Amino acid sequence: MLMHICCGPCTIHPLKALRIHGHDVTGLFYNPNIHPYLEFSRRRQTLQDYAQKILLNVIYPEGYPLEEFLSQVAARPQERCVYCLTNRLKFTADLAKKENYDAFTSTLLYSRFQKHDLIRQIGETLSWQTGIHFHYEDFRIGWNEGVKISRELGMYRQPYCGCIYSEKERFCK
């Protein structure tokens, strides 16, 4: 199974749940929404360090498509989440198909702050379009456990979803 990963802390519970159920998981860190670049790098490094500890193979596509992301959301910031979620899940589904994975999923299903129903809808639509099964699971049940473990491990825990709009909403009151 190919699992889109937004960050290290959000990987803890979904990976555990999937492995308990016998899934062989490969991670994918594809997040052009994360800004600024230093935030992107910090989240990537946190995941790299964690993945090494837990023996998780993670794919890290080259590049940082900042301009593409911004060009798609700048004119319609109120619709940014639909674009962002679709873009990341489509990239995951397309790679899963290309590399012959049986299914794809995302750690986005772990966060209490994400648009869970929208993620599920997009994943199921992409599944129908690509022929690759979208593994839906409500990973939010492991939220407290994941937070506890990430703090015990001293992992960087980001204070916003990643895009510059959410950073503004969080800090510019």
Describe the structure.
It is a single chain. This protein is α/β, with parallel strands linked by helices. It has one domain (2-171): HUPs (Rossmann fold, 3-Layer(aba) Sandwich). Helix content is 50%, strand content 8%. It is built from 7 helices and 5 strands. It has helices at residues 12-20, 37-54, 66-73, 80-98, 116-130, 143-152, 164-171, and strands at 2-4, 26-28, 58-59, 103-106, 133-134. Strands 3-2-1-4-5 form a 5-stranded parallel β-sheet, covered by helices on one side. Helix 5 (116-130) links the parallel strand 4 (103-106) and strand 5 (133-134). Helix 4 (80-98) runs parallel beside helix 5 (116-130). The radius of gyration is 15 Å and the shape is globular. 35% of the residues are buried. The mean pLDDT is 94.
Beta-strand share of residues: 5-15%
Order of helices and strands: EHEHEHHEHEHH
Largest sheet: 5 strands, parallel
> How many strands in all?
5
User: How far apart are the termini?
Assistant: 41 Å
State the oligomer: single chain
Radius of gyration: 15 Å
Number of domains: 1
Low-confidence stretches: none
Strand order in the largest sheet: 3-2-1-4-5
> Helix tally?
7
CATH superfamily heading: HUPs
Mean pLDDT over the residues: 94
Helical percent range?
40-55%
